[in-house]
Amino acid sequence: MFPKLLIANRGEIAVRIIRACRELNIRTVAVYSEADRAALHVRLAEEAYLLGPTPATESYLRIDKILAVAKQSGAPAIHPGYGFLSENAEFAAACTQAGVTFIGPPSMAIRALGSKTAGRDLARSVDVPVVPGGRADTDEEAERSAQTVGFPLFVKAVAGGGGKGMRLVERPADLPAALRTARAEAQKAFGNGSVYFEKRLLAPRHVEVQILADTHGTVLALGERDCSVQRRHQKVLEEAPAPHLDPALRARLHEAALRLARAAGYVNAGTMEFLLDQEGGYYFLEANTRLQVEHPVTELVTGLDLVQLQLRIAAGEQLTLAPGEYAPRGAALECRIYAEDPFKNFIPGPGKIIGLREPGGPGVRIDSGVYEGWTVPTAYDSLIAKVSTWGRDRSQALHRMRRALREYHIQGIPTTIPFHAQILEEPAFLAGGVDTTYLDRRFPDRPHAWSEAERAVAVVAAAVHASRRRPEPPVGPSGPAISPWVLAARQAAIRRG
Asked: pLDDT tens for residues 77-97?
């Protein structure tokens, strides 16, 4: 096993990796930008090195600087986390060339799958269905191919995900502008402005299969996750196993994922993502050649530590898990907590956290990258924490998530906690099996989009969180001067404008 590991990332995923390393007695090396000098991952690691200025292009995306830190610190291995350079084949190859172990798949597998267009080509070669689409290397090529595929369609970044570099195009006249903006956003987020496009499916579900493969030829499918609860093409809530999934379709998805992994010569952890249509068909969407944000739900239902398994695989160990050791048990949910204001169309809400109380108790897990007194920066993704719950069945996992969200208090910045509380009361979500368009249809981006009943629920949720994280009001001879509930409701109304 490695004596020391450099973590080429920030936030909650860097903290998550540090904790896995501590259990394996691996010393950790953090890297940070100027905006992250006081970040939690910097405080927790045994060593920390400044990469450079705040922009990711001058810090977290600088391969040369990260490898220089690895050499300076004597770290023989690098874990890229997710985002930034995690799916960059050049980074994986540069690590190998520098004699540093990259905790992830080899560069050839990243090239075969990490590029969305290359992944689609590989899927076709092994008879895995893909969504109709085409390349967009030039505007002229895109316009010709798009006419064949038809509208509406999505323009997507070749090198990334998470809704970045993605644009919905309803008609041909909008395609040139969508290509320009998608390329610019992809370049900024991933250092690669290449895009492609694919046909928009009507109300699909988004289901992904977790893959684990070692260097000895063992490839495992560790169950699936339903990631259909999305907003602006960004995952909001994930669960495992996928509810109301036909067993035969589940088996086909797992087999397709294994076929793709073997064809790519895949090693380490990864995810094969699929879209399911309303007729029972499935289509390969993309591969994520890294650890996923939502990996905790798989860990909760399998009892495995995926980060530690990543490290063991990279160190040359063989997977010896029998099917019964990773068969899903119970159900798990994950809510992504963003520093965004759900009352103002989810605009980012960076700022100082002046109060923090995290939930706990049976079946509750918190993956967080913040602390009381920390100032959430404006320069990076607004994800600050994840709440995950496990239960013997989906119903218990849901009840535990409701409790966890009620206990979770973050003061000083707006968060999406009240929005998640609202989702957990939605009849369609409670029934299971919503599609990827559900949230955008239910809560469209426009002023006063929520109904009065929905707003009342959200305001009460916000009031509960605000009242519990605020100091008690002054008490006079006849009791409190003003009810804390009144104060909380007033503050919620002010936030709504």
From this structure: 999 999 999 999 999 999 999
Query: Are 206 and 271 spatial neighbours (Cβ–Cβ below 8 Å)?
Result: no
pLDDT at residue 403 in the model? 98
Q: Which two tokens stand for residue 259?
A: 């076929």
CA–chain centroid gap for 236, Å, is: 8
Q: For residue 105, which of 120, 88, 122, 127 has the smallest C-alpha distance?
A: 88
Say which residues have a Cβ less than 8 Å from residue 375's Cβ, sequence separation at least 6. Answer: 38, 350, 351, 352, 353
| Domain positions in the chain | 4-103, 132-199, 205-442, 452-496
Q: What's the pTM? A: 0.84
Q: CA-CA distance, 156 to 168, in Å (whole number)?
A: 9
Does domain 205-442 fall under CATH 1.10.10.10? My reply is no
CATH T-level topology, domain 4-103: Rossmann fold (3.40.50)
Can you tell me the distance from the alpha carbon of 115 to that of 109, in angstroms, rounded to the nearest whole number?
10
- Return d(Cα 160, Cα 85) in angstroms, integer: 10
Q: How far apart are CA 384 and CA 382, in angstroms?
A: 6
Token couple for 63: 């391969």
- For the chain, give the number of residues: 497
Q: Are 101 and 2 in contact (CB under 8 A)?
A: yes
Each residue's pLDDT tens digit, 3-32? 999 999 999 999 999 999 999 999 999 999
Q: So which residues are the catalytic ones?
A: 290
The CATH T-level fold of domain 132-199 is: Dna Ligase; domain 1 (3.30.1490)
